[in-house]
Write a structure and sequence with these properties.
Elements (H helix, E strand, L loop, with lengths): L1 E6 L4 H10 L1 H4 L3 E4 L1 H11 L3 E3 L7 H10 L5 E5 L9 H13 L4 E2 L2 H13 L4 H8 L1
Parallel strand pairs: 1-2, 1-4, 2-3, 4-5
Organism: Listeria booriae
GO molecular function: methylglyoxal synthase activity
Family: Belongs to the methylglyoxal synthase family.
């Protein structure tokens, strides 16, 4: 599966902790991330991560493009709802694309853990089946 990992500045450390905790589940999958988030994940975990631009420089849009091409299967986007984001329209567009293309999306740590545990148990295999039908 192709998994995107995105975190606002105040959530980057939490994303690193999440990827450390679920490293064995994430390892067999193709991981993608926005700039700094991807760098921090790679440094902390040793996982291979394809890095896009940072969110404000278009990274959210790059991931959105992959969603619209059916090349992304799961998004973990640890958002900071208490801090205004200069690229909020891009964030909103990314969330909308997840809804349009039925991509599982976690925007907080609780939902992220549920999705990662579901991934481990094979509950998201329908994404692979769907891709094979196209």
């Amino acid at each position: 599966m192709n998994i995107a990992l995105i975190a606002h500045d105040r959530k980057k450390e939490l994303m690193v902790e999440l990827t450390l905790a679920y490293k064995l589940i994430l390892e067999p999958h193709a991981l993608f991330a926005t700039g700094t988030t991807g760098k921090r994940i790679m440094e902390a975990t040793g996982l291979s991560v394809h890095r896009f631009q940072s969110g404000p420089l278009g990274g959210d849009q790059q991931i959105g493009s992959r969603i619209s091409e059916n090349k992304m299967d799961l998004i973990i986007f640890l958002r900071d709802p208490l801090t205004a984001q200069p690229h909020e329209p891009d964030v909103t567009a990314l969330i909308r694309l997840c809804d349009v293309y039925e991509i599982p999306l976690a925007t907080n740590i609780g939902t992220a853990e549920v999705l990662l545990r579901g991934l481990q148990e094979g509950f998201l295999d329908w994404r692979d089946l769907r891709r094979n039908e196209e």
